[in-house]
Design goal:
It is built from 3 helices and 29 strands. It has 484 residues and is mainly β. The strands form 5 sheets. Strands 17-18-19-21-22-23-24-25-26-27-28-29 form a 12-stranded antiparallel barrel. It has a 6-stranded antiparallel barrel with strand order 11-12-15-14-13-16. Strands 2-3-4-5-6 form a 5-stranded antiparallel sheet, covered by helices on one side.
Length: 484
């Protein structure tokens, strides 16, 4: 009779297109009968119905699992000082309670489904795990093209609707590999590796580890991957600009790695000092010159970025003379992870004035735009407009693109020019040589390209022409950026 009820229940669920694998009422009845027939040994955990000591209750409320989920408490099993909490989607939590005063979290286990409770059978305590599966709706009455038919039944508000599994050549996706039961604490980090002290044996290389603060934290946990392991220790690789503080809880997880080459997190709370030097040869007049960029700035934890820059400063000398154009600005910008926009004000030289005007200097208004992450895929645009002799004139456009080639290497390409009379075009490599993108990091850049400086004229010569002097040639450059 019980078996028939169970088969009827299974048939009804299959007709709905989804089967929920739970411990059935029939199994519970059989288990209860088995327990009556064979009493559980005295050392088996005893079942308690939602009875929690004060320290245990406080601990369950204060913690989240590696994915940031709190304990959705269902039932408790105990054995001596040990408490086993069924925490729903957050898994099975094991806690030690001493003298009803001190509670210590021992482990959080992801059992592949929602842990809903316990029952006794065959002298043991069993964990009830709720999971779901889905299969395509197949029926002789289903007409071709009916895949878009409306479904009136809504998922239960207490449980999220399961996404249909992917199909390839008519085969359902395989179930995920089991996650090793592992727990530990972060001891410290070096560049993009975190050392973890484990409570268990060594972990296989490639195991994913989630890091989360022991207290509740609204930020999503960082998930890295084990690159080496031995008994009691493991090194876990994380992404650029990801930071794990010492003492953070570390747990094995099936969640995807959070590192990103294209859009790593925004690093903040550091000063940045930068210098780029681009020496070049003057080919037409046997001389040399250089184009320099120098800046100091601060990226706040709030989404703001302040900067003072001498960008650019150039000099060139040859047989025809020398020139020294420059631009200097102070700017403030709204600085988000994938977007930055700001304004600045400063001064610049005017090396190529209009006819009849002497070379001099004017007030500069700078506009800045970044699309993309600072240490990921990005495009930067910077323009200068100069107020010179009571007139606004376009001065300079500078464009920079960056493409990640690896976890610590980027392709750099930039160029610009305008009435500031400084022109550059360059490509190069930007490399993170130390640190992980935040404070304490050092970036080095190598460049190759072309650079030039123009000195305009402001008067006609005897033949009626205006003679401009150009200093230009091939360039090799180097740059450094230090974050403190």
């Amino acid at each position: 009779m019980l078996r028939l009820s169970y088969m009827a229940l299974d048939r009804r669920l299959s007709q709905a297109g989804a089967h929920v694998s739970r411990v059935s009422a029939a199994l519970l009845l059989l288990s209860a009968a088995s327990v009556r027939a064979q009493p559980a040994p005295s050392d088996a955990p005893a079942l308690q119905d939602a009875v929690r000591e004060a320290p245990l209750d406080a601990l369950l409320r204060a913690h989240t699992d590696a994915l940031g989920r709190p304990c959705d408490f269902k039932q408790l099993a105990s054995q001596g000082e040990l408490r086993f909490a069924a925490c729903g989607a957050a898994g099975l939590w094991t806690v030690r309670v001493r003298d009803n005063v001190e509670a210590t979290l021992l482990s959080m286990q992801d059992l592949g489904g929602a842990v809903t409770g316990f029952f006794s059978a065959e002298g043991r305590v069993w964990v009830k795990i709720s999971s779901e599966r889905a299969q395509p709706l197949e029926s002789p009455q289903l007409q071709p093209g009916a895949a878009g038919m409306a479904v009136s039944a809504a998922p239960s508000p207490s449980e999220p609707a399961a996404s249909p599994p992917a199909r390839r050549a008519g085969v359902l996706r395989r179930a995920p590999e089991p996650v090793p039961a592992a727990r530990g604490r972060a001891l410290g980090s070096e560049d993009e590796d975190v050392t973890v002290e484990l409570e268990d044996a060594a972990l296989p290389v490639g195991t994913r580890i989630a890091f989360a603060s022991p207290a509740r934290d609204e930020r999503a946990p960082i998930v890295g991957q084990v690159v080496s392991s031995r008994a009691g220790r493991a090194r876990v690789a994380i992404g650029t600009n990801e930071y794990v503080s010492s003492g953070s809880l570390a747990m094995a997880t099936s969640a995807p790695v959070t590192a990103s080459l294209i859009a790593p997190p925004r690093a903040a709370g550091y000063w940045e000092l930068g210098l780029v030097a681009r020496p070049f040869l003057v080919l037409d007049d046997l001389g040399f010159g250089a184009v320099l960029d120098a800046q100091v700035g601060y990226r706040m934890h709030a989404p703001f970025h302040f900067r003072a820059a001498l960008a650019p400063l150039a000099f060139a000398t040859a047989r025809s003379g020398a020139t020294l154009p420059f631009a200097a600005v102070l700017s403030a910008a709204y600085d988000a992870r994938l977007f930055e926009a700001g304004l600045g004000i400063g001064a610049q030289s005017v090396n190529d004035p209009g006819f009849g005007l002497d070379r001099g200097s004017g007030t500069t208004i700078a506009q800045y735009l970044r699309i993309g992450a600072v240490d990921g895929l990005q495009l930067e645009l910077e323009t200068y407009v100069v107020l010179f002799h009571s007139r606004f004139e376009f001065s300079t456009l500078r464009v920079r693109a960056q493409v990640p080639l690896g976890t610590r290497t980027w392709l750099h390409a930039a160029g610009g020019g305008g009435n500031l009379s400084i022109a550059t075009g360059e490509v190069g490599l930007r490399v993170l040589t130390s640190g992980n993108g935040g404070a304490g990091s050092l970036f080095l850049t190598s460049l190759v390209g072309w650079a030039g400086v123009l000195r305009g004229c402001n008067a006609l010569v005897l033949d009626g022409s205006c003679r401009e002097i150009s200093y230009a040639g091939p360039m090799l450059g180097v740059g450094a950026e230090l974050r403190r």
